[in-house]
Write a structure and sequence with these properties.
11 strands; 6-phosphogluconolactonase_DevB; Rossmann fold; NagB/RpiA_transferase-like; EC 3.1.1.31; 249 residues
Length: 249
């Protein structure tokens, strides 16, 4: 099934949300194939322009099928650096590690040649881990070429969780840090997350969601309301160009 494309706009009390490009598919398999092709194309364009490309991906169960499809795309993977949108403060072999998820599903097949830059480090505390991760991200050469977000049913994206300890700073368009530590009731472990400026400046910014429940959450997020309640609104309202949304039932 070919994607249906349209443009949605939503307004905040003070200013409009940028246009959103919808890419809807009949099922997750078709979405994964199409999204992999889009991302591979963007990486190829970056490599052609600069000789290298950067990609930041999210964790969770939703992107597994997409990761597998992307890993088999014919990209010059030895010129690609992959990192994470966010990470739990757990070692790479932990079952809840996004590093582990990427290793098992994305850094395989052809994409095994890519360079991977983790956010986690065995630091003295979360703030030190955030500083180490920020230095790594800053060293990639910003802005990122592609950033792919997910979204939870509570309206969080990246590790921008409602009631997050550093949510205001993480979603501040003028935040001077590339990565910060954050804790929240719904987050489980303490986390590291790319900040809003690093995310929205990406050359290609995508939101990958699946299921009717997340579709309903997105529709609500597009309505006026505080970003603290549904932090994905910070991205929807802060995007510097149309945000590409990939959705399947």
């Amino acid at each position: 099934m070919k994607a249906t494309k349209g443009v949605m706009k939503a307004t905040e009390a003070e200013r409009p949300t940028p246009a959103i490009n919808r890419n809807d598919f009949a099922n997750g398999a078709e979405l994964a194939k199409a999204l992999a092709g889009t991302v591979a194309g963007a990486l190829a364009e970056a490599i052609a322009a600069r000789g290298k490309a950067t990609l930041a991906v999210s964790g969770g169960s939703t992107p597994k099928r997409f990761f597998e499809a992307l890993s088999q795309q014919p990209v010059d993977w030895d010129r690609v650096t992959i990192t994470l949108i966010d990470e739990r403060l757990v070692p790479a072999d932990h079952e809840r590690s996004n590093h582990r998820l990427a290793s098992e599903y994305l850094l395989t097949h052809l994409a095994a040649k890519a360079r991977f830059v983790p956010l986690y480090s065995d630091a003295a505390d979360a703030d030190q881990a955030a500083r180490t991760a920020a230095a790594r991200i800053d060293g990639l050469g910003l802005p990122l070429d592609v950033a792919i977000l997910g979204m939870g049913t509570d309206g969080h994206t990246a590790s921008f969780f409602p009631n997050g300890s550093t949510l205001d700073l993480a979603t501040d368009p003028a935040c001077p840090h590339s990565v910060i530590a954050i804790e929240a009731p719904g987050a489980g472990e303490p986390r590291l997350t790319l900040t809003l400026p690093r995310i929205v400046e990406a050359g290609l910014l995508l939101l990958h969601i699946e299921g009717a429940e997340k579709q309903a959450v997105l529709e609500k997020a597009l309505e006026p309301g505080p970003a603290d309640d549904m932090p994905v609104r910070a991205v929807l309202r802060g995007a510097r160009k149309p945000l590409e949304i990939y959705w399947a039932p």
